[in-house]
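Appendix C: a fully annotated inverse folding record. The material below is reproduced so that readers can follow the format used throughout the book. The structure is listed first as tokens, followed by the designed sequence.
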């Protein structure tokens, strides 16, 4: 049977709803087993656990999982725990058997990392699950291996309509993230700002991030990696709002500070370079943007590998900058490689893969091969309609791109296309 504690969580949500809790009015955060329960409670319906008589929990604006347990069967296997945590296997075996029974098929059914991505996609479409998930895991966690987060990320990366953010602020032993409530409160504010920005409400996100940066500088220091990451987020919101001078000044200072961090913190430096380069590109300063993007891509390939989603973003940004600079012929092979890598790592129907295909089409259009661009955009539009729906913003944008490209064809070709 399902552990009583998850039933208690869902009853608690029912009470909070009766007291006024509404969709998108809160951030749901959980640590360790609590992270597991947070995702259990929201990513699947109560009926999945035999609790048909309970309503769905109010939809959180985001879910934040800290040092969580996400793939329960893997915790009872030495190979699942890895060499660093294999000594915990017997304890996990006893813990999971007591909680869920000896039948490991039950463990899989309640493991967030093994939830069907298509089912989560449908819950997001129905408005029952959030569009933002943040996962953070300390590399120094003595109880939970890093691969728990990685297994969950692999499944969530296949969910359409979800923004998945990899946190990098958890440090120390397993309980440190929860014991340091001050850090968690700041993180929740950042995640709320991210949710607002993703929803197109960057003006509401700006004061939250300004307050967060001020708090982080007071708590962690002005050059701490956490403070620098918050400053990058603040710079990005300034850029979204078109405040390029403010964004540029903030990100230039952040990049200089990040370069002084020790070697293992190179990803903070890469993030600062790539975001600063994007501001330069958006403001038309390609001579400064392209060298930064080249350095960022080289560093990300070394750090993450050629097919990691972060690498795909870096390569796309560099290719778009080269196209903007009039070098579409150099950009096209990069876009083609990005499409191939996205298909391999994310699948042909993932929204990121579809976006990479559209970027390739636009590069062909910029290079003067309008007929090929129209062909690629026509297929991309059909797939976006099928996967995202006809009214999705990405679908509408692709339709506009196709209309513009078709208008450049000779009349007889437009007539043949219908």
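Designed amino acids, in order:
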């Amino acid at each position: 049977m399902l552990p009583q504690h998850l039933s208690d969580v869902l009853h608690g949500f029912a009470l909070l709803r009766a007291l006024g809790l509404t969709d998108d009015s809160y951030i749901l955060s959980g640590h360790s087993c609590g992270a597991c329960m947070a995702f259990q409670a929201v990513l699947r319906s109560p009926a999945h656990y035999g609790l048909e008589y309970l309503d769905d929990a109010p939809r959180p604006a985001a879910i934040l999982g800290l040092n969580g347990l996400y793939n329960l069967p893997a915790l009872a296997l030495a190979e699942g725990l890895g060499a660093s945590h294999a000594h915990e296997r017997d304890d996990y075996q006893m813990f999971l058997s007591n909680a869920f029974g000896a039948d490991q098929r039950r463990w899989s059914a309640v493991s967030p990392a093994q939830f069907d991505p298509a089912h989560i996609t449908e819950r997001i479409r129905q408005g029952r699950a959030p569009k933002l998930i943040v996962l953070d895991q300390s590399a120094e966690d003595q109880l939970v291996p890093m691969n728990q987060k990685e297994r969950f990320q692999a499944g969530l990366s296949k969910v359409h309509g979800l923004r998945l953010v990899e946190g990098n602020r958890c440090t120390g032993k397993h309980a440190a993230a929860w014991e340091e409530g001050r850090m968690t409160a700041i993180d929740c504010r950042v995640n709320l700002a991210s949710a607002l920005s993703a929803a197109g409400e960057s003006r509401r996100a700006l004061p939250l991030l300004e307050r967060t940066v001020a708090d982080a500088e007071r708590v962690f220091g002005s050059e701490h990696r956490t403070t620098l990451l918050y400053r990058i987020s603040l710079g990005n919101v300034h850029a979204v709002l078109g405040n390029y001078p403010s964004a540029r000044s903030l990100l230039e200072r952040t990049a200089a500070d990040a370069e002084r961090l020790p070697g293992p913190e190179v990803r903070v430096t890469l993030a600062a370079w790539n975001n600063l380069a994007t501001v330069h590109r958006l403001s038309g300063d390609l001579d400064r943007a392209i060298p930064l993007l080249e350095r960022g891509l080289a560093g990300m390939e070394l750090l993450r590998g050629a097919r990691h989603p972060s690498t795909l973003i870096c390569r796309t940004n560099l290719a778009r900058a080269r196209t903007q600079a009039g070098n579409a012929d150099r950009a096209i092979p990069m876009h083609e490689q990005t499409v191939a890598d996205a298909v391999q790592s994310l699948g042909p129907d993932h929204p990121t893969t579809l976006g990479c295909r559209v970027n390739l089409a636009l590069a062909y259009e910029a290079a003067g091969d309008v007929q090929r661009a129209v062909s690629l955009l026509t297929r991309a539009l059909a797939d976006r309609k099928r996967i995202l729906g006809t009214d999705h913003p990405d679908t509408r944008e692709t339709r506009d791109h196709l209309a513009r490209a078709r208008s450049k064809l000779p009349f007889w070709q437009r007539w043949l296309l219908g």
